[in-house]
Predict the 3D structure of the following.
Amino acid sequence: MPKKLFDFLSSFGLMIMGVVLLFVASVSYPQVSQKISFLPKSQPRIFLTDNKLEQQVSLPVSHPNIPLKKDDSVCAVPLTAAAAILIDDKTDTVLFEKNADTVRPLASISKLMSALVLIDLNPDWKKVVEITPEIYDNNGHFVNIGEKLAMSDLWNVALIGSSNTAIRAMVIGTGLTQDEFVVKMNQKAQDLRLKTLHFVEPTGLDERNAGSARDIARLLKYALADDKIITALQTPEYYVQPIGLKPRRVWTTDWLLSGWVPNKFGNFTIAGKTGFIDSSKYNFAVRIQNGGKRAIRTVVLGADTYEARFSEARDLATWAFIHYAWPGDDDYDKLAQL
């Protein structure tokens, strides 16, 4: 037999054999050729002890971690605020909102973004900056023209006392121009996906510094994740020390923290930032804890009076703590099964 004919017959024989084997496999194991369209259901566990089958044990039910509403009540807290939002701090679950996506002037809440940028720049906290007439704000008297202060002192005056002069002095202390600093503020907002936030200067005095209550609540969460920021925002009073002068007391602008607006939240459970200019009215962004791991963030924008922003934030938080259950609460497991 010629070699070419032999090679052809050998190849043809092998091909026929392969087809036969595939056919046999498909008949013997039909599931190989079928598409699996479902996942197997989990079954109760069976434990084997001393060669005996023990009682079947069902797997535990998975519960959500979000706070759950206890009842059908509707939040009826009277609000003068034009916009507000109430969010669970851990899961970002929205518990209440009013015009939460409306863009409004931030006022001094802008300083939260300024603080984040300053942290990123990691300035020399011992560096001394002089207060000049160009950066002095006539509305605040925590620091005065001609005084020299360390960056660490300016930091606390800026966040605790909401001093515009202190923020401007810190920008100078970084070696950047104000315009360069503002570019970093807007870039930070983009990086954090805070799409409604926009800044034109670092203090909040310009009404074009603006954003929504929803994005402010997110900004607050990012800011409070930094130890240096949260420490300042949980300090009710501070003594600033201008070089060569006597210490001067600076009160927090947060009246919930100072207790000037009555509340039952306790020490080290409140961390927030205020803001006010004529076009914004009274703003407040705060995180409040109420024992254990229960914490909410509340943003109130455009309240009618200085005190109203605090009382309205307090009342919103109190309503949430009463009408919602968190994991670990006695009634949480029952609610999760409904």
User: Anything to note?
Assistant: The mean pLDDT is 86. Residues 68-332 form a domain with the Beta-lactamase fold (CATH 3.40.710.10).
